[in-house]
Design goal:
Chain A: InterPro entries: NarG-like_sf. The complex is a heterodimer of chains A (about 220) and B (about 450). Chain A has about 220 residues and is mostly helical. Helix content of chain A is about 75%, strand content about 0%. In chain B, helix 1 runs antiparallel to helix 10 and helix 18 packs across helix 19. Classes of the chains: A mainly alpha (about 220), B mainly alpha (about 450).
Chain lengths: ~220, ~450
């Protein structure tokens, strides 16, 4: 078995298993805690908890004008890296092909140039985020090993993916192997660290939205 | 800290309330008590928030203490860092793994002591940070839980806040005012202002709770309450058995004292068959009664809970409150309004005071950040009651001072006793001549035919 076979076979199954089980475990650990029944009467402009949760899950993706003057850099970097990743993952031909092979569901892919641009923007945004985390006083204080590891684990698949797409002088199979292995490393770490925000930002928003929605205090 | 999650470890004797200097209890016991206090009412909501932080630092930009000082330690989510660490090490879904691999450091009592000024002196629990957080973390809620832990470990700031909460737990009143004295004070206020004062009536449709701080510092606001309710013409009564709405215990982190205050008011209002309980112009006491009291007493409340500004707006709409417009000279610079965080941002009622101000015909110049976006005055969350926090509080107040100056108004109206105090002290210390007024007091001055009904 070559390293590529290992990456495409046992490593893929293993990392997927860890990703799924880890996330299920983490979510279960949180959601199995006893929930309190809220007996307070809903507020005057109440949207109800469910609508509040749904609304907040979407609305909080948009920045609030009041804060933009002070948070613009974070917001721009956040948008750049997340939208870039989304475009590459869902629009890049090899990714769509992989999804189609695995699930039978496919869709038209984006032109290679668009995907390359998105990858470039993502890479730059990730690098800037890393620099910012090392230099901004607040981020330096808050950051722990998980923050840096999560950034690096996202950077490597993007970088290897770009090299793959650009057909550089490096051997294709070696690059592909490291691309897949780096994605698997990301998948393995995802449930344990802050990469799990892919799930938990929405869960957190839903909790706040439910609370404020019931009060009629969504704003 | 033990290897067993504190919430599941055998209950040791609860730590008595103490001040930071006290060392009569083992540090470990106090640490366990702190964690137990923190997680005692942990549900999926709080646990999700503990898992959701991105360390993006945006909450710092929403906090007056960070924005004005530039010190990163005032980043809101950092204020609960020891509790976050202890949670992920002792209680979170991967706690055993993280302990085994040494991924999260152990929290020490010394650390909690060092965190006292972050959890108490520099957090107004105003919730502005929860407005910016991309993960929707209600940091104010987590700070409240962390304060439960700090209280159990005996780490409440010992000066004003600690002393008042202690008195409140003992007597039900932060100043320890006995019922007879309270009744006497209320009757005297009625007499002084020539008002019919209703105290301890057996039946009343409307019960206004009152802040002891009002009784001590702003008795005119108590007179204004009586004057307005007499004008509206409802059956109403103060209740000395459920009078004190301050709930200093809530901000100190003392759940026993908090429950005592809440229960007394609920029982008193229930006893006289109240349909409406009005919370005075006092922020946190309102959110406690409006959103938590039913959960504290374990059943839906048999009456509605309204903030004074909500009640006034309702009566205006119903036509039972009739106001004369304020006569303003043509060259008046206008007025502005400071939204109390708990009513506006946390409860969604920015509209109520504005309806009242519109009826008064005020020339309102909104602050640059108003309504849910409003900056806290810096005194909320008990910070106004911590003497040593004054320099920091004044520092944080600078943002409010600037926004008021930018509005061009010469008067700031408030609808919260705590905000009123903070503004008065803040302006005084800065040598400003800007006036601070209570919206309720103004309403009481502008009642139509008030003499006939008073």
């Amino acid at each position: 078995m070559t390293l590529l076979d290992f990456a495409r076979g046992p490593a893929l199954y293993g990392s997927t298993l860890i990703l799924v089980c880890g996330l299920v475990w983490r979510l279960t650990g949180v959601f199995l805690l006893p929930a309190r029944r809220d007996r307070a009467a809903p507020g005057k402009g109440s949207y109800g908890a469910l609508w509040g949760a749904l609304r907040m899950m979407i609305a909080r993706s948009l920045p609030r004008r009041t804060f933009l003057g002070r948070t613009l850099a974070t917001v721009l970097l956040g948008y750049a890296m997340h939208l870039g990743l989304g475009i590459v993952l869902l629009g890049g031909a090899p990714h769509v092909l992989l999804i189609e092979q695995a699930t039978g569901i496919g869709w038209p892919t984006l032109p290679k140039g668009v995907v390359a641009l998105a990858s470039g923007i993502t890479l730059v945004a990730l690098l800037l985020a890393l620099v910012r985390r090392c230099t901004h006083p607040v981020l330096r204080l808050l950051s722990n090993g998980d923050d840096y590891l999560s950034l690096v684990l996202t950077l490597i698949p993007v970088a290897t993916g770009m090299l793959l797409a650009e057909e550089t002088a490096l051997p294709y199979d070696t690059l592909l192997t490291w691309h897949i292995l780096s994605v698997e490393a990301l998948m393995i770490w995802l449930p344990f660290g802050k990469l799990s925000h892919a799930v938990f930002v929405f869960a957190g928003r839903a909790m706040l939205g439910a609370k404020l929605g019931r009060r009629g205090a969504l704003s | 800290m033990t290897a067993v999650p504190p919430s599941m470890s055998p209950a040791s004797k609860p730590a008595p309330r103490r001040i930071a200097e006290s060392r009569s209890q083992e540090d470990r016991v106090r640490l366990d008590a702190a964690m137990r206090g923190f997680v005692s009412d942990f549900g999926p909501e709080a646990a999700t928030w503990m898992e959701a932080c991105l360390h993006c630092g945006q909450c710092a930009e929403a906090c007056q203490f960070y924005v004005e000082t530039g010190d990163p330690k005032y980043t809101p989510i950092w204020k609960i860092e020891p509790f976050k660490q202890a949670y992920s090490r002792e209680m979170g879904p991967f706690a055993p793994l993280f302990r085994l691999l040494g991924l999260t450091p152990k929290v020490s009592l010394g650390e909690l002591e060092r965190w006292q000024d972050l959890l108490y002196d520099s957090c107004n629990m105003c919730g502005r940070c929860s407005l910016v957080c991309p993960a929707g973390i209600d940091i104010a809620d987590l700070v409240e839980k962390a304060r439960h832990g700090m209280f159990e470990a005996g780490l409440v700031p010992p000066d004003y806040l600690g002393a008042l909460a202690g008195k409140e737990r003992e007597t039900g009143s932060p100043f320890g005012i006995p019922k007879d004295a309270m009744r006497q004070s209320l009757l005297e206020i009625g007499e002084k202002h020539g008002l019919a004062m209703h105290v301890d009536e057996p039946h009343a449709d409307v019960v206004p709770a009152v802040s002891s701080i009002d009784l001590k510092m702003y008795p005119d606001s108590i007179a204004a309450t009586a004057r307005v309710l007499n004008h509206i013409g409802v059956s109403w009564s103060f209740r000395t058995d459920g009078f004190d709405a301050d709930n200093v215990s809530l901000t100190a982190g003392d759940r026993v004292g908090q429950k005592r205050v809440t229960q007394a008011i609920v029982e008193a209002a229930t006893r006289c068959g109240a349909k409406v309980l009005i919370m005075p112009e006092c922020g946190h006491s309102y959110t406690e009664m409006r959103w938590e009291a039913a959960n504290t007493v374990g059943h839906a409340l048999p009456f509605r809970v309204l903030h004074m500004s909500e009640y006034l707006a309702e009566c205006l709409e119903a036509g039972s409150l009739r106001l004369r417009a304020v006569e303003t000279p043509a060259d008046s610079p206008g007025v502005t309004f400071h939204d109390p965080c708990q009513v506006s941002r946390r409860s969604g009622r920015s509209d109520a005071p504005r309806a009242v101000m519109a009826a008064l015909g005020l020339d309102l110049h909104e602050l640059a950040d108003h309504g849910p976006d409003s900056w806290c005055c810096g005194g909320g969350g008990g910070v106004a009651l911590i003497n040593r926090a004054k320099p920091l509080r004044n520092h944080a107040f600078a943002i409010k001072d600037r926004q008021v100056a930018d509005s061009g108004a010469d008067t700031v109206y408030v609808s919260c006793t705590g905000c009123r105090q903070t503004f008065e002290h803040g302006f005084k210390d800065l040598g400003r001549v800007t006036k601070v007024g209570s919206l309720l007091d103004l309403v009481a001055e502008q009642l139509e035919e008030r003499e006939a009904k008073a």
